[in-house]
Amino acid sequence: MSLSTLGQQILISLLTVLIYGLGLPLLFSWVLTIINRNTKQRLATRFGMNSQVYLGALGIVVHESSHLLMALLFGHKITGVRLIKFAHPENQATDPEALTLGYVNHRWNSGNSYQTMGNFFIGFAPILGVSAAIFGLTAWLWPTLFHNWVAFASNPSISTLFQPANNDGNLLVNSIRWLIWAILVTNLSVGGFDLSSADLRNSGAGLSSYIVLLALVGLSAGVLTASLTTWSRTHLIPFYLALSLVVVLSGVVNLIVKWITKEK
Prior knowledge:
- The chain has 264 residues and is mainly alpha-helical.
- It is 73% helix and 4% strand.
- The chain has one domain (3-48, 116-261).
- The chain contains seven helices and two strands; from the N terminus they run ααββααααα.
- Strands 1-2 form a two-stranded antiparallel sheet.
């Protein structure tokens, strides 16, 4: 292999890991945060801040649980946890958590690269956690739709999203299951996807370490193999296509909330 070919292979490998490992996660997190922050702001303005708890309790619990599990995975010391709570604006002067609907406080050793890098994943953990919860609920309550999502992720086509139901039960049972699915998915979307400024700051604390790791992976893969790009296309594009369906669901929930909260 010539040096120019090797250099091209390394460059492609580096771009691949940066796009799939950093660029796309940041893009999806940003889009989901923008959509769902608007949803929550509309609810809070129309019905009060704590309406987010009533309409998004499950999402809040999954959001904070995702932070908690990821913090434990990266060896952080947990100093305080509330998976869900009501906001108390009247206590802002004395309580730093007065406006939060849940929190996970943690400490880490700044001299430990693994723990420091973990901050990136801890901050963005709710995007993965809530998405996984939505996919799990869909597989349980609406298996045909889940099958169609999997088919779409493997072979993107509008027709695959609207395949007819097969042996999912009778219409009454299905209607009840679909209604429960809609309520739970709406709840997850309202309460789960909005990354707070604290979440984003926390991720920023681990960003440089994560970029170094990605660069090392990309450089090593570029030197040793040319198959990283093919592997990424095969395994990661379906994942991001599936995540795009979560964005669509969040957009639908946002439109419903806009209609409910519009001025009469």
